[in-house]
Amino acid sequence: MNYHMVLGPAEPTLENFENAIKRLYPGDWEEALKVYKPESAEDVIAVATDLASDRFISYSTWKWANQQSKTGGKPVYRYYYARPRPAMRSEMGNASAGLAGGVTRNSGNNNSSPPPARGAVHSAEIEYAMGNLSENKVYPWTPDDKRVSDTMQNYFANFIKTGNPNGKGLPEWIAMDKGQNVRFMRLDVEPRLETEQHRDRYLFLDRPKIKK
Q: Which residues pair with 186 in a beta bridge?
């Protein structure tokens, strides 16, 4: 999610970020700054992007997976999709990718291609998971994109058939445990297991809300 969802039209400075935190969490803003803490002005965009993304979908997805692992009675396999789409083809001109997979034609006379999104945006994984990269002509897909798509399809097909994503030729994917060191599969050109790093952020968002 875009950092403007936290900062609004304000410039990404330390002062403006703190003011945004105070506005969003007036009762416990000091606790918020402990887990969403830019070390310098150069960090503000990244940290504000993290917070905007957590508020949009990351925290709720974490909560869902966390509860499912405790109460669902079946193994839960968590993944983090990390492969950004390529920049749009030059023929797209002055356009940008929409949040849920669409394309927005920008106003103005500038026909240059916009810069690529920061990382893998929400919905970017759909063509990869469904194996239809070739049907989307907006992006110049590469062999690495095809590789990510093949990996996702194999993991997902195995899980649909057996309840376990693992299979021949795939890096081992370990199910979530119920403790502090949750493992997840980072899906990219070289998929790999990683350990959860941001539990403190999710626990803050999961806290009992302080009444104003």
A: 80, 192
Question: What's the confidence (pLDDT) of residue 129?
Answer: 96
Q: Are residues 124 and 33 in the same domain?
A: no
- Give the global pTM: 0.82
SS3 136: coil
Query: In which residue are the tokens 């966390």 written?
Result: 66
Spell out the residues 6+ positions from residue 139 whose beta carbon is closer than 8 angstroms to its own: 85, 86, 87, 88, 89, 133
- Provide the domain count of the chain: 2
Amino acid at 87: A
Residue 9 CA, chain-centre distance (Å), reads: 23
Q: What are 83's two structure tokens?
A: 């492969």
Residues 31, 85, single domain; the answer is no
Q: Model confidence at 19, in pLDDT bands (50, 70, 90)?
A: very high
Do residue 8 and residue 92 come from a single domain? no
Residue 113, pLDDT > 50, answer no
- pLDDT for residue 63 is more than 70: yes
Long-range contacts formed by 22-26: CB under 8 A, 24+ apart: 26/212
